[in-house]
Amino acid sequence: MKALTKTDFHFKGQNSVYHGKVRDVYDINDDLIVMVATDRISAFDVILPKGIPFKGQVLNQIAAKFLDQTTDICPNWKLATPDPMVTVGLKCEGFRVEMIIRGILTGSAWREYKNGCRELCGVRLPDGMRENQRFPEPIVTPTTKADEGHDLNISKEEIIKQGIMSAEDYAIVEDYTRKLFARGQEIAAKHGLILVDTKYEFGKRDGKIYLIDEIHTPDSSRYFYADGYEERFAKGEPQRQLSKEFVRQWLIEHNFMNEPGQVMPEITDEYAESISERYIELYEHITGEKFGKNTEDGDIAARIEKNVANYLATR
């Protein structure tokens, strides 16, 4: 199975390109963004050495569906998806903050809590909580976006104090974050899943705040299966989950957390295919639809270039 791990397109009107961990972002005339969801996969802030077939298509199509299903909550950047791996949208000036919202104590928050942390991003956490326990109400724990290395936790007060956002903009963004999360939880529940935590990014264009980037994908979100959640929690057993956390756990088991001296374990074709299957499984669970593998064209890059060029020609 083929995977797209790098792009080098030259679209009409292209000003620049930014190659992120997973997405390649092309600036068109300083007005539009062509965002290509590649098959790269990252964990612990490092890109793994092998691409995951169909991962980009899964991410792009889930994000597109949720962007379309949340336009009544807030405006977003999406204009079209001319290719299964591409979204074209409005260029916005992004805030240098990721709005992370958590409904359950798990993942990195649990690791910090277990080590004695009782305040996360300015939010006080009650004593006596257990792994995978629901918070009384979802908590917002932002991080600042780092150019390199780990993103850093930050409080609402620091965001405003440092001038990253005005108090007025932050209030709007937090309100959008909570409402988007509630919508995501509702949709997940209809498909037998719990949306555990997720992150949103926002930007501004002509003075208006937009939701940008991806939304509710397995790269940006964590899902538990609802069936058996309470029983597993009562017994202190690990939850069945659909997210990228299983890749992180696999790396941890192979002694890799991107710390000095650690060596990335080999990603075999078989393991890459198993990750692909997990991503497709999440797609089908969260959307309730069968995933259509786009395999009719062997040259993925050529297909994308043609589809995007055709779309831009109509603008």
Helix-strand pattern, N to C?
Answer: EEEEEHEEEEHEEEEEHHEEEHEHHH
Shape: globular
Largest sheet: 9 strands, antiparallel
Rg for CA atoms? 19 Å
Number of strands: 18
Provide mean pLDDT, rounded: 94
What fraction of residues sit in β-strands? 25-35%
Given helix and strand content, the structural type is alpha+beta
Helix content: 25-40%
Q: What is the terminal separation in angstroms? A: 34 Å
Our count of helices gives 8
Low-pLDDT residue spans: none
Layout: helices, strands, pairs:
Elements: E1 14-19, E2 23-28, E3 32-37, E4 42-43, E5 46-47, H1 55-68, E6 78-83, E7 86-90, E8 93-94, E9 97-105, H2 107-114, E10 119-120, E11 123-124, E12 133-140, E13 143-144, E14 152-153, H3 156-161, H4 167-190, E15 193-205, E16 208-212, E17 221-225, H5 229-235, E18 241-243, H6 245-253, H7 269-287, H8 300-313
Helix pairs in contact: 1-7
